[in-house]
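Researcher: Let's do a round of design. I'm pasting the structure tokens now; please hold your answer until I've finished.
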């Protein structure tokens, strides 16, 4: 019996030893693969691997995509996982590169006469510099049948029209805003002037029934020309809308006030100049004279009459200032 007991004990001991060895081998394999560290570290390793398996492509993508088109053995995994992130940069890139086309649109500025003209304006420099000092006012009338050399149906002479287009181009270039004008507010025939003056006369008579005809005439003549005395007959000026004092509050007027002389235009009837020009302040009425004259008129703060030397009036000078063709000076 003892032998049997001993044998059984021995068999049990052997069996337990075999189990221990077996489990040792299993854990031993794992620990050898990841070094001699403990299991908590092992768990960390695996979790890190899981994390890096997801995060790696994000960091790897920008490097691998642009660098190498065809990759090494490990790349197929990276590329396949990182394809979505790789398409993201192109989506965000356009906003970064969008300003580039805009700056590319900025054309070469042409500096002329100390002013920087955009290309849309610079192409009209020839016209901007053309001088036209035709003087029409209360002392210098235009014959009833006078017809200026208007450019097409613009209501303006060619140099004035293209100088105006240059201003429009420059304003659009600087502000992005578009300006236009009404051709009917440029050239006005004698007949048109006649009807306009008659209309204003009727309106003033209704307002001032006690005024004499002469008083009405003088009143209207502070803002409307007697037929034959209108600068609008020359095709060298125009009115912008609204034709009222409120125009002075517009951005366009403010821009004109600073820049128009670079394009040969002047504010023809300025504030407190009625004694010289004969008319009240008209912020909407702009006249083309050419850049040189406009620059001097603007910088000296004078009127066209003063620039031409006809004000103050003195005998013998008025006819010299009138630059209409002799045939029209009957
Ligand atoms: Zn006008």
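Researcher: That's everything. Go ahead.
Model: Designed sequence:
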């Amino acid at each position: 019996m003892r032998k049997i007991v001993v044998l059984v004990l021995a068999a049990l001991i052997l069996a337990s030893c075999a189990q221990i060895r077996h489990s040792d081998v299993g854990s031993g394999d794992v620990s050898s693969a990841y070094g001699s560290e403990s299991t908590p570290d092992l768990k960390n390793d695996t979790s890190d691997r899981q994390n890096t398996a997801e995060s790696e492509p994000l960091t790897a993508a920008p490097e691998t995509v642009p660098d190498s088109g065809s990759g090494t053995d490990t790349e197929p995994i990276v590329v396949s996982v990182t394809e979505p992130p790789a398409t993201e940069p192109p989506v965000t890139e356009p906003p970064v590169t969008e300003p580039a086309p805009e700056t590319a649109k900025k054309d070469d500025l042409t500096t002329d006469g100390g002013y920087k003209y955009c290309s849309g304006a610079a192409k009209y420099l020839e016209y901007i510099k053309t001088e036209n000092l035709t003087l029409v006012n209360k002392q210098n009338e235009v014959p009833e049948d006078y017809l200026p050399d208007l450019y097409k149906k613009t209501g303006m002479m060619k140099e004035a029209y293209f100088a105006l287009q240059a201003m429009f181009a420059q304003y659009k270039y600087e502000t992005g805003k578009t300006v236009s004008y009404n051709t009917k507010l440029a050239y006005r025939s004698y007949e048109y002037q006649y009807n306009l003056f008659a209309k204003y006369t009727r309106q003033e008579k209704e307002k001032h029934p006690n005024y004499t005809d002469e008083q009405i005439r003088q009143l209207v003549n502070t803002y409307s020309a007697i037929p034959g005395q209108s600068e609008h007959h020359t095709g060298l000026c125009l009115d912008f809308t609204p034709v009222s004092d409120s125009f002075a509050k517009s951005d366009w007027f403010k821009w004109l006030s600073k820049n128009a002389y670079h394009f040969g235009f002047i504010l023809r009837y300025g504030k407190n100049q009625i004694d010289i020009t004969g008319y009240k302040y008209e912020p909407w009425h702009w006249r083309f004279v050419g850049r040189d004259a406009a620059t001097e008129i603007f910088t000296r703060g004078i009127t066209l009459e003063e620039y031409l030397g006809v004000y103050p009036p003195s005998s013998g000078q008025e006819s010299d200032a009138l630059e209409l063709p002799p045939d029209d000076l009957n």
